[in-house]
Design brief:
single chain; alpha/beta; Rossmann fold; 2 domains; 8-stranded mixed beta sheet; 8 strands
């Protein structure tokens, strides 16, 4: 009797395993790409719309103004004036904020005798815009503020931005003409980030283990151009190089800042150590700004007093009111 036939084993079992592995790898790649695109879409969407009303204050004269950017976008802003002869500080909020978040800082500047104008940058608060490109398009809001001031005031100007606001200032720097620079006394940059890639990697590292954080950061970097305009991938620190010699710069960083650690501010300082001051405190991301909201802004006052040029306006003290203060708003300027 003949033995029954035995099943013939597959000649190339590794091919089946290779096809299986390829299928799994392709599925993971598609999942990674899809998740990256979805995350990039979500992170670049505008902040929730929030109608803003100028508060009643007793330390300056407040007014609502509308700034008209060069791309025909209207930027809402508030002015806080202590004296017509005083310099004006342009205040630019961090990511997810608005001009309402800058009121405490405006009060700090008023105590130093400075007027201020606080903007809500596009894609935030009640400003227009559907995509947040992390300061690139907001550079036009900075230029709109300078254009508005040029047509109404002849006093010196300072630019003061936190995180996203600091990036907007740096992005705007190459487009500021010599006439405007001649009026700018200095820049204050809090929690600046040097480039978008570094900022993305810092944020993914905060929430994911090393391997996943690296993959997530790479995916976001590759997917971001699908939602951001041309130019948005440029590095703010490259725009910082356009700040003319002699324009003073104050860099503010925090040792507990994981979004833009002090090493980022040191990179800026290294690009132009002359006329540039770096201060590091034990605070988190935009912790200096937060101090003006939760306390009396003593940290900012201590940093700014020896740095700024004393204003001829004198400014109100902590418990003093400036002339004409207490009005809710002035006439709406356009």
């Amino acid at each position: 009797m003949e033995a029954p036939d035995q099943a013939t084993p597959p000649r190339f079992p590794w091919r089946r395993r290779a096809r299986y592995a390829s299928g799994v790898g392709l599925a993971l790649l598609l999942l990674w790409a899809g998740a990256s695109i979805a995350a990039a879409d979500r992170l670049t969407r505008r902040s929730p719309f929030m109608a803003e009303q100028i508060p009643s204050i007793d330390w300056a004269r407040g007014a609502e103004v509308s700034l008209h950017a060069r791309d025909e976008v209207t930027t809402p802003a508030w002015t806080f004036d202590v004296d017509e002869a005083a310099p004006t500080v342009v205040l630019l909020h961090p990511n997810g904020g608005s001009r309402s978040r800058m009121i405490g800082l405006a009060r700090v500047w008023a105590r130093l005798g400075y007027n201020s104008i606080a903007l809500t940058q596009r894609a935030h608060g009640d400003a227009s815009g559907e995509r947040n490109d992390f300061g690139w398009s907001a550079r036009l809001d900075v230029l709109a503020a300078l254009d508005w001031l040029a047509g109404r005031r002849s006093t010196p100007i300072l630019l003061h931005g936190a995180s996203l606001g600091a990036a907007a200032i740096c992005f705007a720097a190459p487009e500021i003409d010599d006439e405007r620079w001649s009026r700018i006394q200095g820049l204050i940059l809090e929690s600046p980030y040097s480039d978008l890639e570094t900022a993305v990697r810092a944020r993914t590292a905060m929430h994911l283990p090393w391997g996943l954080a690296t993959a997530a950061a790479l995916g976001l970097e590759l997917a971001a151009p699908l939602f951001l305009p041309e130019g948005a991938g440029r590095a703010p620190i490259e725009g910082f190089d356009s700040v003319p010699p002699g324009c003073r710069v104050l860099l503010l960083a925090g040792t507990r800042d994981r979004h833009a650690p002090p090493a980022e501010a040191r990179r800026y300082h290294g690009r132009r150590p002359a006329d540039c001051t770096l201060l590091v405190e034990e605070v988190g991301h935009v912790g200096w700004l937060t101090d003006t909201q939760r306390a009396d802004g003593a940290r900012y006052l201590a940093a700014l007093r020896p740095w700024v040029t004393p204003s001829p306006a004198g400014g109100p003290g902590p418990d003093e009111k400036s002339p004409g203060a207490g009005r809710r708003t002035g006439p709406r300027a356009r």
